[in-house]
Amino acid sequence: MHRSPCKASRRHSFPHSLALPILFVAMIVAGGCVSHDRGRHGGDAPITTSTAKQTASLGLPWENEFGYAQGVKAGPVIYVAGQMSLDDTGAVMGTGNTETQMRQAYANVRKVLSQFNAEMEDVLEETLYVTDMLAALTAASKVRREVYPGQPAVASTIVQVQRLALKDALVEIRVTARAQQAASARPYVEQQSQPSGRRGGGRGGGMGGGGPR
After folding, report:
1. What percent of the chain is helix, strand and coil (3-state, nearest 5)?
2. Which of 95, 97, 153, 211 is deepest in the core (most CB within 10 A)?
3. Where are the alpha helices (DSSP H) in 91-132?
4. Looking at residue 86, what DSSP letter applies?
5. What is the side-by-side strand order in the sheet with 171-178?
6. 155-160 and 123-130: which strand pairing?
7. Residues 33-37, mean pLDDT to the nearest whole number
């Protein structure tokens, strides 16, 4: 009986001592091809930082000198760098007054958040670095209630340090916040028509309604 070439070739198998090395080489080659294709065609290739991050600036000279951003948005999270009581030129405001400096530091946090269309109510976590704990606790009990709407719902930590980057600075505040949902992504609710005899407000989303805009 004539045997086909394929069946005959099965008798000439590789020695067991060569089987594993050959299989190992084949796996490496296959893996290299997959990695190459992913890099060339997209696939699971990592996103570059230039497309994954948005940054904010206050126009201060040491942002470029030191090499940092005042705020960074990555996905749904905003990270705000430590803010001190500085004016637009970078000079310390409220020298010797912890309450004044804390209030201005929060104002600068708000400036950074506004560049990402976020507000203080979007803050999830904050860390306050202070040089005088007693003075800072006294000021914080007043200032934070002015800064956050209603009862502050923020994970807060306060730490006393020996000094801050600028010698006259008494307070530095850094926060983490959630990014606002894009307006175009918000769900659309169709407004129901009202009888012709009714006019005005209610809870509808129209111009006269009381709903949020």
Report:
1. 35, 20, 45
2. 97
3. 98-114
4. B
5. 53-56, 71-74, 77-83, 171-178, 123-130, 155-160
6. parallel
7. 40
Closest CA to 68 of 84, 80, 85: 80
State how far the Cα of 199 lies from the Cα of 155, in Å rounded to an integer: 44
Q: What DSSP string describes 9-49?
A: HTTSPPPHHHHHHHHHHHHHHHHHHHHHHHHHH-TTPPPPH
47 falls in which pLDDT band (50, 70, 90)?
very low
Residue 143: both structure tokens together: 């200032």
Q: What values do phi and psi take at 12, rounded to 5? A: -95, 70
User: Is residue 125 a contact partner of residue 173, using CB atoms and an 8 Å limit?
Assistant: no
pLDDT band at 61 (very low <50, low <70, confident <90, very high): confident
**pTM of this structure:** 0.62
